[in-house]
Amino acid sequence: MKDRRIQIGIILLFIFFIAISSIYNLRKESQTVNVSIEYKEKTIAEISRIRDQVVAIRGLNITKNIDVRFVDKEWAIRNWAPRSTDVPEELKLRELFYKTTFLIDWNQSIVSLSQEWVGLFVAASSGYTLYINIDYFNPDSQYSRNVLAHELTHIMQYEHFRVNWPSCTDARNALATLVEGDAGLVQRLYCSHTKECEPSEPWSIDYNNLYLSFSAFPYIYG
After folding, report:
1. pTM given for the model
2. Which run of H or E residues covers position 199?
3. Which residues does the UniProt record annotate as the domain eCIS core (predicted)?
4. Do 28 and 81 contact (CB within 8 A), yes or no?
5. First to last CA, the chain
6. 148 contacts 138 by C-beta, under 8 angstroms
C-alpha cells in the first residue's frame, strides 16, 4: 500500500493540476488543517534538508521560500476534486469518451474516481506551494523523502523552466512527460546518492485500471 501511495502521490500533480484544472475551476481554501508543532517543525526541517540535496543533484537553485501547507484527505477532496453537483460539460464528455472506449465501466464516474485518487496523495506542489497530506505523510519515513525529492524538483522546474501549457492534449502530454521524467530522475538520483530511500518502481500500465494508466502517461514514458 505504501508503494501505491508513493506512485499515487507523485502522479496527482499531473492528473489534477493539469488534466482537470484545464477544464475545472479548482477551489482553494485559505484555511488548511492544524498540526502539532513537533510534526510541523520536523516536516519543514526535512523539506529544507532534502531541498539542499536536490539543488546539489540538479545543479539549479530554488531562490524563493517554499510555502508549506498542511492538509488532509477531506480538505484535498473538498478543494481539488470535482463535485458531482457541479460537473463541467467537458468533463462529462471526457467521461463519455472513456466509457465508449472501455477505459472505465459504464457504472463508474470520473467524479468518484477523481475523488478517490485525490484523497490518496502524499504531497503535491503548485508553484512555490508544497502541500503535505498529514493523513499519509510521515517525516521519518523513506517513502515521504522519496516523494519530497520529486515535488521539490517540480518547484525548481517552476522557477527555471516556466512555460505556457499547450491546449492540445497530445502536446500537453508530451511536455508533461518531459517534466515528470526530469523529476523522476532527480528523485531516483536522490535515493541512490543519499541511501535514505528506495527509488520507486517504474510506473507501468495497469490493465485493471486503464483510466489511471491513461492519466499517468507522462510517468510511464517520462
Report:
1. 0.81
2. none
3. 123-159
4. no
5. 23
6. no
